[in-house]
Specification:
Blueprint (H helix, E strand, L loop, with lengths): L4 E7 L10 E11 L4 E10 L4 E9 L4 E3 L2 E6 L2 E6 L5 E7 L4 H4 L6 E10 L3 E11 L1
Antiparallel strand pairs: 1-2, 2-3, 3-10, 4-9, 5-6, 6-7, 7-10, 8-9
């Protein structure tokens, strides 16, 4: 962190099974203090050309989708945007029954799934979270 930007970088390919064909998965999360913007950048490398990528995010409130942009909250407004327009976004309601999850979350939660066919060995995707006050 330098007062203007805070950054966290991690290597997460070890979180996925061998069947995922991941060679490398570098994730960087950056918070830009001045404009309240969070950017998550995923750099992925696969060991084959044809791959299917699915990314999941969870939120407490029911989101709405429009033009590959999701409104997570209405007041203050929080938007979620994906850099790859080909990623198909889907919203699913998930009822919670696990007691340990219910200590931190209210039921239901909402799962945002992004699915993308990747026809190359490397891809970079960015997810932006922007709050408008």
């Amino acid at each position: 962190s330098n007062g203007k930007v805070s950054t966290l970088a991690m290597n997460i390919e070890g979180c996925f099974p061998k069947e995922s064909h991941l060679l490398s998965y570098q994730r960087t999360a950056e918070y830009q203090h001045q404009n309240s913007l969070v950017i998550i950048t995923d750099n992925l490398e696969f060991d084959q050309i044809e791959n299917t990528l699915e990314i999941n995010f969870f939120t407490q409130g029911k989101p709405s989708v429009s033009n590959n942009q999701i409104t997570l909250l209405s007041s203050p407004e929080l938007k979620f945007k994906v850099s790859d327009a080909n990623m198909k976004l889907e919203i699913t309601e998930i009822p919670l029954t696990d007691g340990s999850l219910l200590r931190s979350w209210h039921s239901p939660v909402w799962k945002i799934s992004g699915k993308l066919k990747v026809a190359k060995k490397q891809i970079t995707i960015q997810y932006e979270f922007l709050q408008n006050t």
